[in-house]
Amino acid sequence: MKITIIADVYGVANNGTATGCRNLAMRLQERGHQVTILSTFAGEDKTGIKYIQLPKRKLFGFYKILEKNGVMLAKPIDKKIVEAVADADVVHCLVGFKTSRAAIPILRQMHKPYTAGFHSQAENVTSHLHCMNSKIINGYIYRRFYRKFYKNVEFVHTPTQFIADILAEYKFSNRFCVITNGVNPAFKKIEVERPEKYKDKFVIVNTGRYCKEKRTKVLIDAIKKSKYENRIQLICLGQGPDEKRLKKRAKKLTNKAEFGFWSFEDMLAALNYGDLYIHPSDVEIECLSCLEAMVCGMPCIFSDAKTTATNTFAYDERCLFKHGDAEDLAKKN
Question: In the chain, N or C: fewer CB atoms in 10 Å?
Fold first, then answer.
């Protein structure tokens, strides 16, 4: 088949939506399908995936916020949409943002079958606006998602039952297909030697964007409060707007915390020689970074927040802590 993915959010794999899109495209390509991605990304990679580039969308004051988070939204151009879908047997709209909305009348006019995905919680938006816990504003955003886009789609992919249930609560009338985004098979348990400088340390690993809703500061504060603080080595991999603040917060730790965007090989090694993975985030539709740690064999601890799917990954109560509570996390010895 010839499959086109319309991806308003794509490019550097520093967020779950972009990573999930990349995984989907690669797996389809491996199975013999021809894949085209319409996004802000340009070029053609070694797998043969075709890219058609859209300009980046600038949202006045919001642009800088999104840029700091490494998220670039696409600006729809009808000519490019037509080019991307002309030969497609089916089109998948990754998220219900502006390019996907602009594509619907074009797809209908061209009689192209299409599906959609749901990969962005309302809280992913409101966290940037400092009102993440507002039920009124979050509810408005979910209803707007439906009114502006999802009411025009029959089949919607949701990575977890968690988000499908939330959408049902907000009266989305779609037919939900609950399928995990999946983990790149390159993530796996391997034999790797722990670096000499960590030999006598208890290594805690965390990966993901440095931003408010990921609550990385809770993890740092919990290490400070732990009775084993002087033995703990934190490896916190990623990038994002809160990087400087998190580094400053971690300065009081006995062992200098590791921050930054490591190569895949180095990150995979850390996920294999680490002792424990902790993910304190309050907002996750699925969280591929947690799944990546789990397939590498790492024991994990998650936030129990009701706005994250990761609490369903827990084996039992020992794997959960009260969200936002550094003291409770510190007790998980």
Answer: C
Q: Which residues of 14-37 are buried (b: 16+ CB within 10 A; e: fewer)?
A: bbbbbbbbbbbbbebbeeeebbbb
Six token digits for residue 316: 């039992």
Q: Which helix (H) or strand (E) holds 207?
A: strand 202-207
Instruction: Classify the phi-psi angles of 324: left when phi > 0, otherwise alpha if psi is within -120 to 50, otherwise beta.
Output: left
Is residue 274 classed as helix, strand or coil in its secondary structure? coil
Query: Residue 332: which pLDDT band, with cuts at 50, 70 and 90?
Result: confident
Across 314-327, average pLDDT:
92
pLDDT at 64: 55
Q: Tell me the two tokens of residue 5.
A: 């993915």
Q: What is the pLDDT of residue 59?
A: 63
Q: What's at 47, amino acid-wise?
A: T
Following DSSP, what letter does each residue of 292-313 receive, concatenated?
HHHHTT--EEEE--TTBGGGGG
Token duo for residue 83: 């080019």
